[in-house]
Amino acid sequence: VDHEANGFHPTDILRDFDYGRTSRTEDGRVLREWDVYASDEEIEVAPGVKYPAWTFNGRIPGPTLRCTEGDRLRVHFHNGSEHPHTMHFHGMHPAEMDGIPGLGAGTIEPGGSTVYEFDAEPFGVHLYHCHVGPLAEHMARGLYGTFIVDPKQGRPAADEQVMVMHGFNTTFDGEGNQLYAVNGIPFHYMHEPVRVKLGELVRIYLINTLEYDPINSFHVHGNFFDYYPTGTRLEPTEFTDTIIQGQGQRGICEMRFKYPGKYMFHAHKTEFAELGWMGFFEVTE
Amino acid sequence: VDHEANGFHPTDILRDFDYGRTSRTEDGRVLREWDVYASDEEIEVAPGVKYPAWTFNGRIPGPTLRCTEGDRLRVHFHNGSEHPHTMHFHGMHPAEMDGIPGLGAGTIEPGGSTVYEFDAEPFGVHLYHCHVGPLAEHMARGLYGTFIVDPKQGRPAADEQVMVMHGFNTTFDGEGNQLYAVNGIPFHYMHEPVRVKLGELVRIYLINTLEYDPINSFHVHGNFFDYYPTGTRLEPTEFTDTIIQGQGQRGICEMRFKYPGKYMFHAHKTEFAELGWMGFFEVTE
Amino acid sequence: VDHEANGFHPTDILRDFDYGRTSRTEDGRVLREWDVYASDEEIEVAPGVKYPAWTFNGRIPGPTLRCTEGDRLRVHFHNGSEHPHTMHFHGMHPAEMDGIPGLGAGTIEPGGSTVYEFDAEPFGVHLYHCHVGPLAEHMARGLYGTFIVDPKQGRPAADEQVMVMHGFNTTFDGEGNQLYAVNGIPFHYMHEPVRVKLGELVRIYLINTLEYDPINSFHVHGNFFDYYPTGTRLEPTEFTDTIIQGQGQRGICEMRFKYPGKYMFHAHKTEFAELGWMGFFEVTE
Ligand SMILES: [Cu+2]
Ligand SMILES: [Cu+2]
Ligand SMILES: [Cu+2]
Ligand SMILES: [Cu+2]
Ligand SMILES: [Cu+2]
Ligand SMILES: [Cu+2]
Ligand code: NA
Ligand code: NA
Ligand code: NA
Ligand code: NA
Ligand code: NA
Ligand code: NA
Ligand SMILES: [Zn+2]
Ligand SMILES: [Zn+2]
Ligand SMILES: [Zn+2]
Ligand SMILES: [Zn+2]
Ligand SMILES: [Zn+2]
Ligand SMILES: [Zn+2]
Ligand SMILES: [Zn+2]
Ligand SMILES: [Zn+2]
Ligand SMILES: [Zn+2]
Q: For the domain with range A3-150, which CATH number is right: 2.60.40.420, 2.40.50.100, 3.30.420.40, 2.40.110.10?
């Protein structure tokens, strides 16, 4: 897969947090601003397999927008695609900022733009996606990304990573996926393992945007993680090595590797794993 | 859709709690009694689409039976359908009151009747449904309803609502659903939004009775809710905007809207949403 | 079904815990050793229906390996099958003991053997399975079993049982299951109910190894259970009568029956129930 031609690289996406441009509001709060562009892109998703994607900022998944609870957020959305789109955020916000057809700015036509502005709440790991119909296709084509709201007090220092679980319906039959991936490219982290340090806290912001299939799943080998569903509380609810998520669900996985070496992570839905949703952690001292 | 011809209206079902007829048992406890009738009904589920349903009390979902833990419950079940049926309750009860073929009164033939009698426990949000085989068809045809057992101390005052998530297999192929709904009619709350007050506590008793599909899902826009799985504890386990439920699972969602306006709620399984499982809250001061 | 010809009996598997051969390590810890054999076996899964299974120790599910946290574990694995296999444990262990192709001993060819050795952690209910590709087939053929790590302080005395939920793809189309079961034989506990004592604590180690389907589910009639996901904590997270598990998920269900009689337990996915995943508890004084 030609990452340069694709214009993005899953290894970079893993730890790429976009904090936006910061300034202050009149009442002294932090204001964060981003420009997000929708565009139609041909992406090589497997050697020789080109997928006509719809993207935010030219990548799948879109940029990881990150802020702190209480910040004021302003997202300048520009639709450079040939199809109508929106940005709908999971998070609290007024109805007119919801990014769905018929409310506020509503559907943004090709060449159009709008501004979504709201307060960052609640803290947790969230997501955004286009909400234009047919919704299944606008999801399946690649229009989703991660939205992290940090708690004011922060979280303990960690090697922080984002993993967006998704798929590609390369036949466009609207009935399932022929390829599965985390962060854009099937099997990528098999070839380029995720490098982590022995004993260090690893924090994964895990999001499921998979279209068509009823659930997705995350399993790690040889290790266990604390799981924080939606990341909205500072205490974990579960200590496990396998979780499932429906579309739109997300959570934080925190783990430390006790031994060096290579450890698989993959969907424990074997079909997804064998069609691309698998990778390795490589643990070194 | 002609709600009058159907004989029930989803807007009414939402807040329709049936506490039964109350009296006292010899030992001074509250005795609640209900009459529930099974019947075969043709229901208009989409404009011009008639579905040959099997119902409890002529509606889909059946009546929301509500009581308090420790009450004595007596359900007089009358089978006015042309098919054999039972009422099986999720809840604690002796085996002979379980409402399944071969135990206690067993299968209730057309024209027959029986009485199910047991104590109300544990508190939480539960369900009842017919348990005659083929079970998939007796579920899919519409034979389910909500069973709420309130804790003795009650719950905080709220705008209380019931949402039963289900579907219609209009082709009768036994392989899936062509329409999805909450409280009987696909897309109903798109046309008649659920009206709620700004800042008021909204408590949704959410039940999944969907047949054929492995999971269902509930997502609310622009807001988050506390989630109480099965409603059997007074502390929530999760603060989120998206949950999944397998068939027979249920829980309580508590939320307050901070801003006025219209907010979608729908399955975050886009297929279900686009085939009817979507609606609006309309928030006013 | 001819259990003797099959060589295993689901009623026995239910309460059959294999603690291995114990001795002491040089530093005084408990060392547990097991021999596990992979073999190809024809199993009668329904009257007259023979399934060409791949098994651990000649049974489906494989032996329930049980130990205490902190024990040293040594599993002598012998591949007597005509296909290559491994044993991959869910649990913490060094990469070279992970039981996957390409790491440590890697794939064990027919006639080959290896030793997996690691410390028992964390406490909880886990599983093991073959990890050779095509992974879906090596799961579907029957190569899985339960791995229980007891907490040092133990758990309260109970009638302990293991239930492994799985299926049989008797058409070998790789697209789903035609039969569903718990502990090897569809409908078995309908004919031979699980006998339990009134009022006694029943503890079920519940594991989902079902291939092809996205989730599995467990429901009990007339009763509720405390649920401990993955069994890694001593406090339950939920009190319910219905849970779902993706493949590789597992947990502990604790319940007491208050009334005598027969109570169904089954997947609340009706397809699975009607194709074999149902049974009875029989509660006596
Ligand atoms: Cu879109
Ligand atoms: Cu594993
Ligand atoms: Cu029925
Ligand atoms: Cu939303
Ligand atoms: Cu295998
Ligand atoms: Cu039940
Ligand atoms: Na697929
Ligand atoms: Na492992
Ligand atoms: Na469907
Ligand atoms: Na939203
Ligand atoms: Na099946
Ligand atoms: Na029951
Ligand atoms: Zn779009
Ligand atoms: Zn969404
Ligand atoms: Zn694996
Ligand atoms: Zn019936
Ligand atoms: Zn049920
Ligand atoms: Zn939506
Ligand atoms: Zn194998
Ligand atoms: Zn596994
Ligand atoms: Zn049942």
A: 2.60.40.420
